[in-house]
Structure formats: structure tokens, C-alpha cells
Design goal:
nine-stranded mixed beta sheet; Rossmann fold; Protein-Tyrosine Phosphatase, Chain A; 15 helices; UDP-N-acetylmuramoyl-L-alanine:D-glutamate ligase; alpha/beta
Length: about 475
């Protein structure tokens, strides 16, 4: 736990008492703040009360005495309309912040000898894998690494800082919207494609939120920027023009005179006087596909920026075990492999998995994002058959049309059973891929619950097979 000492003696309202909010409330209390916690869900309030955190009805509270509102990142800040807490805070002149901002101010207020290294990662896709991969590299280098943010633990729930620690943080656009003081030794922007427009309203707002990861960087800091999409290319150009920090472009599509890039699975470092080959990513079982080559390039560049030796970073890439719910092989039954890519909650993320496989049986659907799966139409020819689930199933069936065989299964259980039955009947080596291209919220609490359900269904299929083998 990081005591939020920068808020000692101040009055802070905390709205949203899930993982992030609870960790922030504990840290604020530990740091000496006067806290008022609230959530619209009674079970969340009850959990806070059981922990001894002050629960105060913010609807009826006097906001004039508050110094700040700490808002859960999932709560609307400005679109489609501000949450009522946001309206109350603005009317009372109360600052609105998030947990990353509390962390930033706590670090900034600490004496120089206590301040840790900070590497933060954002992007539409790949940020969880890159965060976990960078954390793995730093740990393999023998450093004291703390991994959290939008992955694992809430930022303020991580162990307290010291000068030798390295914080590796995944930050969503929601968190960045609430952050203004964070200064990153290494700030990573992987890519940007349309996503979360139901929250940000426009691409301009979404891009602006992502760009905030570079706020406050100066001489001695490093910006790692993907240049494989036009939004990030523009941001990289603007950062170079600002000429205040070290810029490390990364690519998985082309060679560059400066930066880190991967071509045909080979990772190259062109940050020095000459370009050197640093790793054959074909030997990294958990980094399959071009999207993972970009993740590897980003993690390698960020590792160098926080003081990891190039040869140590390169070796650690090859031992990375992978990330749950992202191209995770969860089982194999005879000739049929099952891959859990539940974290692919939009079409662009699903594309990364689909491009990495020659042929597959595709389980897709859920609560669709803007644009549906039309952007994937060039890949429909790789689909042996699609098994469609959730709210989007009928729409996805129409979008696929005659391009690939498909069936509306309704739910994940029926989709897994049908895909396995068809794969068995083919007599070939087969892959069943769960890469939904959708949010999970129509049928599951989140993508992790959806991925766990997929794993459990595969294990259930394996149980009868194992029993039959034993009996034989």
C-alpha cells in the first residue's frame, strides 16, 4: 500500500468502490486524508464499511468543504453526459482526479532519493501484454518491480515506493483523462484505433486522452511510440518537434533508421550508432504474431529507458510466459487446440489474433463496439466456420454473409460444443479461437470471466475424453 501523503489533512470524496476505488480510499486514509466513500451499489458500500472506511452519502453531502473528488475510471467524466458526482464537484469548484493522479502527486512530493522509476503503457490494443512483458523483463533483471494499474492491483494498492523500485503501470484512456501530474521515465503509446467512443464521444477526445501519457516528460525521459497507425504517427511527429525528451519509435511493419522494430519475427535495435539484431521472437512461444512483435519492441525500448541492459532485456523476451486471455492456449484435445483470446474486445484486437493463425474456427460476439466486425471482412476467408454468441450474434451473421460458414449459437457453452464437434469431424489439425471482437457485458461481468468460462468449458470437454481413455 502506498500512503497518499500528498493528501494529508485534505478532504477527499471517493466515488466508485471497486478494486481501484477501494485501494485509493485505503491509501488516502493511510496518508492522513479525511475520506468520504460512496458507491451506488449497496454491496460495494457494505464492503467499504466492513473495512472501516467512512461511507458517506454523496448525494446528500455538503460539497463545499471538499478538496477533491477521486472518481473511479469507469464513471463518465463528460460523455454521454457527466455523472452526477462530476456535476456536483464542478458546481462546488472541487477538483476531479483519479488514482493515478494521487500516485503521481505522492511520488512528486517525496524526496528525490525515494522516488522510483515509472514506466507507463497505454494504447488501444496490446497494453496488458506489453505491461506484463515489461514487468517480466524488469524482474528478470533483478529489479524490484511493482506491476499494476489497469492490470492486476490498483496503483495505490501496490507496495510503497523506494528509490530502487520500478513501477510498471497499464493506464487506460479513462485513467489518463483523470491524470495531469504523472511524469514517466518511460511512457509507451502502442497504437490507436477507434474504441470507447461511447465514453469519449469523438476520436479527437480519445486520442487526446491517450496522448496525456506524455505530459510532464522532459530531458532524460523517454517516449516510446508506435508508428504503425496514422494517429500515433502524428503524435510521434509532434513529440519530435517538441524536442524535449528521447523519442523511440517502434514498428512491427517496417525498418527504421532510428528506433526499435521487428520484421519477420526478428527484433532490431536501431537506437545506437548501428542497427543490431537483438532477438528471434520466433523462439518466444508467448509472442506469436505481428501484434506481439510490436509489444516486444515496445517492452524492449521501455526496458532500456529504465536502465535494463539490452542483452538482459532481449533474453527475458524469450522466457515470457504470456498473459491470460490473450492468445492463451487453454487446452488441446487430439488434433484440436483451443485458444482463449477473450481480451479481444474490439475488432482491431481480434484482427491481431486472426492474422496470427492460418485457419481457425471462430467464436465471436457479445456486446458489439462501434463498427462491428466489418473491418475484419478481409480475414473472413481464413474462418473455417464462425460460432456467434451474445447480443451481436444476428448482426455478425449478416456481416459475415456468404464470406464464411457460420451459425448463431447464442451462448458460449453451445458455441464451444459446436466448434469442437465440427473440428473433430474434419479429421484435420484444427484451432478453435475465442476472439469475440466484443465487450462481454451482455453475458459476463468482464472479459476475464468470459475467458475463464471458456477455459472451464474446454476442461469439461477434456474430462470425458480422459475418462474414456482410462477405461480403455
Amino acid at each position: 500500500m502506498i500512503p497518499a501523503a500528498a493528501f494529508a489533512g485534505r478532504k477527499v470524496a471517493v466515488f466508485g468502490l471497486a478494486r481501484t476505488g477501494l485501494a485509493a480510499a485505503r491509501a488516502l486514509v493511510l496518508g492522513g486524508a479525511e475520506v468520504a466513500c460512496w458507491d451506488e451499489k449497496p454491496p460495494a458500500r457494505e464492503q467499504a464499511a466492513r473495512e472501516g472506511l467512512p461511507v458517506v452519502d454523496l448525494q446528500a453531502a455538503d460539497w463545499s468543504g471538499l478538496d477533491a473528488l477521486l472518481l473511479s475510471p469507469g464513471v463518465p467524466l463528460y460523455f454521454p453526459k457527466p455523472h452526477w458526482t462530476v456535476d456536483k464537484a464542478r458546481a462546488a469548484g472541487v477538483e476531479i482526479i483519479g488514482d493515478a493522479e494521487v500516485f503521481a502527486r505522492t511520488v512528486n512530493a517525496a524526496p528525490a532519493w525515494r522516488r522510483p522509476k515509472i514506466a507507463a503503457i497505454t494504447g488501444t490494443n496490446g497494453k496488458s501484454t506489453t505491461t506484463a512483458l515489461l514487468g517480466h523483463i524488469v524482474a528478470e533483471a533483478g529489479k524490484d518491480v511493482r506491476l499494476g494499474g489497469n492490470i492486476g492491483y490498483g496503483i495505490l494498492g501496490l507496495d510503497d515506493m523506494h528509490g530502487g523500485a520500478v513501477y510498471v503501470l497499464e493506464l487506460s484512456s479513462y485513467q489518463l483523462d483523470l491524470t495531469s501530474s504523472l511524469k514517466c521515465d518511460a511512457a509507451v503509446l502502442l497504437n490507436i484505433s477507434p474504441d470507447h467512443l461511447d465514453r469519449h464521444g469523438t476520436m479527437e477526445n480519445y486520442v487526446a486522452a491517450k496522448r496525456r501519457i506524455f505530459l510532464n516528460q522532459g530531458v532524460g525521459d523517454t517516449a516510446v511510440v508506435g508508428v504503425d497507425d496514422p494517429y500515433c504517427q502524428q503524435i510521434c511527429t509532434e513529440l519530435v518537434a517538441a524536442n524535449r525528451r528521447t523519442i523511440r519509435p517502434i514498428s512491427a511493419r517496417r525498418a527504421m533508421g532510428r528506433g526499435v522494430y521487428a520484421l519477420q519475427g526478428l527484433l532490431y535495435d536501431a537506437t545506437g550508432e548501428r542497427t543490431i539484431e537483438v532477438a528471434d521472437l520466433g523462439q518466444a512461444r508467448a509472442l506469436v504474431g505481428r501484434h506481439n512483435w510490436q509489444n516486444a519492441a515496445a517492452a524492449y525500448a521501455a526496458a532500456l529507458a529504465v536502465g535494463i541492459a539490452p542483452e538482459v532485456a532481449a533474453e527475458a523476451l524469450l522466457s515470457f510466459p504470456g498473459l491470460a486471455h490473450r492468445m492463451e492456449e487453454v487446452g488441446a484435445l487430439g488434433r484440436v487446440r483451443f485458444i482463449n483470446d477473450s481480451k479481444a474486445t474490439n475488432a482491431d484486437a481480434a484482427r491481431q489474433a486472426m492474422e496470427a493463425l492460418p485457419r481457425f474456427r471462430w467464436i465471436a460476439g457479445g456486446r458489439a463496439k462501434s463498427g462491428g466486425i466489418a473491418p475484419l471482412s478481409d480475414l473472413f476467408g481464413k474462418v473455417e466456420k464462425a460460432y456467434l454468441i451474445g447480443e451481436a450474434a444476428e448482426d455478425f451473421a449478416r456481416e459475415i454473409g456468404e464470406a464464411a460458414p457460420h451459425i448463431v449459437c447464442g451462448d458460449l457453452e453451445h458455441a464451444v460444443a459446436a466448434a469442437y464437434r465440427d473440428a473433430q469431424a474434419s479429421g484435420r489439425e484444427e484451432v478453435v479461437l475465442l476472439s469475440p471482437a466484443c465487450a462481454s457485458f451482455d453475458q459476463f461481468a468482464d472479459f476475464e470471466v468470459r475467458g475463464d468460462a471458456f477455459r472451464a468449458l474446454v476442461q469439461a470437454l477434456a474430462a470425458p475424453s480422459a475418462a474414456a481413455k482410462a477405461a480403455g
